[in-house]
């Protein structure tokens, strides 16, 4: 296979995954398999990638390897069933998209093309949500997207797509220089407006609201001169005011958290007031109790559900229905399964990625930091890296942004410098 064919093979695999994260989970799985096959084929046939693997790698990739190995080793003492262990290892394997995509990108040009494909896919996804809202035909949307629990999400849930849209808007803004100049002036404001409009106006995911507010605040802060950066703290206030005028239901959803938590305080049984907040609080409480039982090695991959159930009062009763899921908090999930060292590993991955972007050009650095901020915030309220689709999206977004920033720019500028 020639060098040119190798290059096309690598790029097609990466671009297929970059597009797939805007599509149903079955297509994402096929694209991930394509990336794995491309990587294995190149390891066998391409001496360059073999040198890259054995050479010096960014610390963030090493942290991903350590974390993946830790989950596999923890299966030896896991309290979960074999099926639960296998599912857990598969979903934690989302992280491996970061090194795989990194190795399959050889240059800034590869990264730019993959990011452009990623942006096109996300824009079509956002347009699909607006099409559903306007009652236009969107043949590729799943049934029931306009009502029920989907709330105009095209393929996944409103929770996933609200976070995805917020990250998409941030990446379009910071990496606007990769959008061809003739259409940049239209595409950038339209994409950001449609994405953030969907977050606050169409979807009801409160995590998406918080992620969007954090990313907008960070973007405003980075664009301001140093001595005026304190004024960026006004950004969420001003944005909240605009949202209250244009989409008051978004602020109502945020304020509902206070009501839901108050109801938990007043209830006599843990899940008497079964709301999103009450369920999370109960999950988090049991997770902390499970962590207390095994703080140093955890209970093993896939063990969260079994540990949660063991702490429930009715667990021993014949009618008890076993829990299938996660604690809706990535940090607690890692802590229960791997103990406190697992929590340290997760934080080390985020810290290593933040450190890796320090020498990058400002647009690339801000794109990486925006994805990391989104992950850090989303993981407070959901298992954002572990869950299907949103985990694939966030890991790929981080991989593409890192690939863009870590590869040296071409002779002609491909970024917009502040």
Short description:
With 418 residues, the protein is an all-alpha fold. The protein has helices at residues 3-20, 25-45, 47-54, 59-74, 82-92, 97-104, 108-133, 158-174, 181-201, 206-223, 235-246, 248-266, 276-293, 304-310, 330-338, 340-356, 362-381, 390-406.
Q: What does it look like?
A:
The protein has 418 residues and is an all-alpha fold. The chain has one domain. It is 68% helix and 0% strand. It contains 18 helices and no strands. The protein has helices at 3-20, 25-45, 47-54, 59-74, 82-92, 97-104, 108-133, 158-174, 181-201, 206-223, 235-246, 248-266, 276-293, 304-310, 330-338, 340-356, 362-381, 390-406. The chain is globular and about 65 Å long. The protein starts with a helix and ends in a 12-residue tail after the last helix. The relative contact order is 0.14.
- Distance between termini? 42 Å
Report the sheet with the most strands, covering strand number, pairing sense and barrel closure.
none
Give a count of the beta strands, DSSP E runs of length 2 or more: 0
| Low-confidence blocks of residues | none
What is the H-and-E element order?
HHHHHHHHHHHHHHHHHH
Total of helices:
18
Computed over alpha carbons, the radius of gyration is: 22 Å
Q: How would you classify the helix and strand content by structural class? A: mainly alpha
* Share of residues in helices: 55-70%
Beta-strand content estimate: under 5%
Q: On the 0-100 scale, what is the average pLDDT?
A: 89
Give the overall silhouette.
globular
